[in-house]
Amino acid sequence: MPIRLEPDFPAKTILESEDIFAIDTSRAKHQDIRPLKLLILNLMPNKIDTEIHLLRLISQSPLQIDVDFLKTTSHEHKHTSKNHLDEFYLDFSHVKENCYDGLIITGAPVEQMDFEEVDYWSELVEIMEWSQLSVTSVVHICWGAQAGLYHHFGIEKVAFTEKLFGIYKQDIQHHFRLFRGFDDRFWMPQSRYTGINEEQVQQKKIKVIAQDENKQSTILISEDEHDVFLMGHFEYGTDTLEKEYLRDRERGVITALPQNYYENGIVHNCWRAQAHLFYHNWLNDVYQLTPYHLEDIRQLQKERRLRSIRS
Fold this sequence. Notes:
This protein has 311 residues and is of the alpha/beta class. The protein has ten helices and 14 strands. It has helices at residues 10-17, 25-28, 47-58, 82-88, 121-134, 143-153, 198-202, 240-250, 272-289, 297-310, and strands at residues 3-4, 22-23, 36-41, 65-70, 89-90, 100-105, 135-141, 157-172, 185-196, 206-212, 217-222, 227-230, 262-263, 266-267. Helix 1 packs across helix 3 (47-58). It starts with a strand and ends with a helix. 38% of the residues are buried.
């Protein structure tokens, strides 16, 4: 099934050139099924690239999906035009009375800062708190995952001696339903200077469902299964790590070549299939859990939180 996009949304043309089906609003209104309502809080500097990466993945669902993009108002966005943001992005004040089936919180290049030093931290906290009652399921990516683990569970960041940068093998620890169709071992891009305090993870109501070869947690889910935390970047395109490497070099940042990325100077994408499958499974999971009437989400989430407190 298609994604519904506004007729002049920039990514629409690119996705259609890749045979990814997107329909405009007027055509979508004549379909009887209720689409899933998805909200994407895009914290990445190059927002258009991130839009394309995520839309590629969620387009593989057989469900029709309405996507809203959310921006923070407490941060000056320097890498995306104001016109683009004004036309296609919403402020939190415009969505906080709404309910959504799913929310994606992206990463952001601020991981070497303390959370409270990030200029939009208080706004992000408000959004994360709102999501607990107004969204059926939330996926947090990279720094977004670290932020979610810190806010919801008090799990602190741990600085690495050097950037974790490349494609790394992951081992499934629990065959959770988000891994339907996965191999027991899979690959996922990583690009970060920090990890999480593993000892604190063991003390919280969190399931570690995937680890890397060094036994570092890379995919986690809250015990009530509402929040999913991806430490890596399933959404990355084939050339994204190369672009990051070249960008670092231009800025004078010392970064090693991405690990397990080049083979005789050529990049072979070894994570694409699992990335599509993960998001397909997540959207299907949301579809099974979410009520038909969006306004019923808050009552269901209140009941979920009450069960979690009692347990």
